[in-house]
Amino acid sequence: MQGQQQQAYDRGITIFSPDGRLYQVEYAREAVKRGTASIGVRADDGVALIVDKPRRSPLVEQASVEKLHKADDHIGIASAGHVADARRLIDYARQTAQVNRLRYEEPIGVETLTKDVTDHIQQFTQIGGARPFGVALLVGGLDNGSPRLYETDPSGTPYEWQAIAIGSDRGEIQAFLEEHYDPAMELADAVGLALEALGSVSDDGIAPDGVGAATVDAESEQYLELTDDEIRDYLDEADLLPDESE
Fold first, then answer.
1. Is 243 a member of any domain?
2. Minimal CA–CA distance to 121: which of 188, 193, 240, 22?
3. How far apart are CA 55 and CA 46, in angstroms?
4. Dihedral sign, CA of 158, 38, 84, 221?
5. I need a surface site. Which of 20, 38, 96, 112 has the fewest CB within 10 A?
6. What are all long-range contacts of 55-62, with beta carbons under 8 Å and residues at least 24 apart?
7. Which domain holds residue 164?
8. Mean pLDDT of all residues in the chain?
9. Burial class (CB in 10 A: 0-12, 13-18, 19+), 198
10. In total, how many domains does the chain have?
11. pTM value?
């Protein structure tokens, strides 16, 4: 009988269970946990976004694995969870940013964009016949020259962080960040810290084409994705490259 009652609440996204839970939202969070890791680190002079892009097959073009996105000139977004859901939210974020530029003739704020996206996400927890987005986003950028970093939750709740990991191995990566994070670090150090945090859960090292990295620095106020060669330099400095002796 109890199992049948739970199934009834499973099917109804708009119905709370007797203990106040929305099961479909919780299942969406589980989908995020099954996604590969994404890490954001806020530095004194910018924001770094790092994503894990494991090679599923030697025949896959790594450039087609989309986990880093430019939402506006000064804002980048990393995702963990269902890629298709992430693309829908990225498109929504880009449209929102462009509308703000056309309407107000100024770039949208990171906090404003994040809350617009989470308002959109939250609507899908109240609409019958729909399901929540099975993805979490890290939104990093600059508000009037100040670095900002936010996380979106499948429930539609935004959280601001100094450093944050989403996706698989979140607990272990977050513990590493909490131990080694320094609010006064520079952007290059933030990239290195994020890669080291990702390497802390990898036994075989990290290949340069197996991760993506992007920064938004306060000086240029521009979103920039790092090349494989630049990532290799960071990995080499942290001794995270795979052992090629075999």
1. no
2. 22
3. 29
4. positive
5. 20
6. 55/207, 55/209, 55/210, 62/209, 62/210
7. 2-237
8. 91
9. buried
10. 1
11. 0.92
